[in-house]
Amino acid sequence: MLTELAPVGKRSFETITAMNSSAVENGAAATASASSQLAVRLQEVTFRRGETQILRPVNLEIQRGEHWALLGPNGAGKTTILSFCGAHVHPTSGTVDVLGHRLGRVDMQQLRRHIGHVNPRHPLRSTMPVIEVVLTGLTGTIERPNRWRPKPEDIARADRLITELGLAYRRDTRWPVLSQGERGRALIARALIAQPELLLLDEPTTGLDVAAREQFLETVDQLRQSQPDLTTILVTHHLEELPTSTTHAVLVSHGEIVAAGPADAVLTSEKVSRAFEHPILVLKDADRWAARSAPSRQIGKMLNT
């Protein structure tokens, strides 16, 4: 009888083993799938410069297609976090994954070709016209390389972006003549021409007047429709500079993350006050945020929260 049952037992063991193996494979596949949906992941990341601790252990996950705002006071660590996202800096400890690639195990220059960067302090010294400034997004250089010649399809893509960003009338205008707002839109076109998966905007409205700021933010909002798969991270000190397309936010203070998650859950009076160490009243109207110093009657309540 035992001899007859032995094959059954063997088959059962084989079935269980196969099920377990399948579960492991499915679990690994699910993990891989989840990882592939991440644009940025920081795990227990720290950063030191000499004896100065810039970042304490930081954890952050940004999914593809999300639009994040990175806020905090001066010296909070925002620029360092953005440098990780842009594949410019390695952490002192911990791991940084950008677009599925771990820093330290990937060619950083190659990875940066998939990342667009809008910096209003773009250090261009020549008098190139807008079309050529945009084309330098393909070479990753400030000036156009002497021996490089764009292909007809490159010029066509640059013209398309210039038109989409409302700069067609400035296509051949030279850089020094442009207003700050026009430069900002030209830099977005420059960042997008290489078809990046991740777009970083480093205090992009610096130096803009109110009208130029609003035009710039409208341009950023339009990216949500024109580039639905694009992930964006915008750094700013001011809630008024957040576009309506912002989906998530992270507050940083003293090298630590105070709060991170959906924008409405993070950008509250209590959490923003904690990050900036000052009682701040956060308001939202028509999908735009604003901040002002809290009335004296609310200060005690905020500080005791």
Write structural notes for this entry.
With 305 residues, the protein is α/β, with parallel strands linked by helices. Helix content is 40%, strand content 25%. It has helices at 2-36, 78-85, 108-112, 130-139, 152-164, 180-192, 210-226, 263-266, 269-276, 296-303, and strands spanning 38-49, 52-63, 67-71, 93-98, 101-102, 115-118, 198-202, 231-236, 248-253, 256-262, 280-285, 288-293. The strands form 3 sheets. Strands 6-7-8-3-9-10 form a 6-stranded mixed β-sheet, sandwiched between helices. It has a 4-stranded antiparallel β-sheet with strand order 2-1-4-5. A two-stranded antiparallel sheet has the order 11-12. Helix 4 (130-139) crosses helix 5, helix 4 (130-139) runs parallel beside helix 6 and helix 6 (180-192) runs parallel beside helix 7 (210-226). The radius of gyration is 24 Å and the shape is globular. It starts with a helix and ends with a helix. Mean pLDDT is 87; it is low at 1-32.
How is the topology of this model organized?
Layout: H1 2-36, E1 38-49, E2 52-63, E3 67-71, H2 78-85, E4 93-98, E5 101-102, H3 108-112, E6 115-118, H4 130-139, H5 152-164, H6 180-192, E7 198-202, H7 210-226, E8 231-236, E9 248-253, E10 256-262, H8 263-266, H9 269-276, E11 280-285, E12 288-293, H10 296-303
Parallel strand pairs: 3-8, 3-9, 6-7, 7-8
Antiparallel strand pairs: 1-2, 1-4, 4-5, 9-10, 11-12
Helix pairs in contact: 4-5, 4-6, 6-7
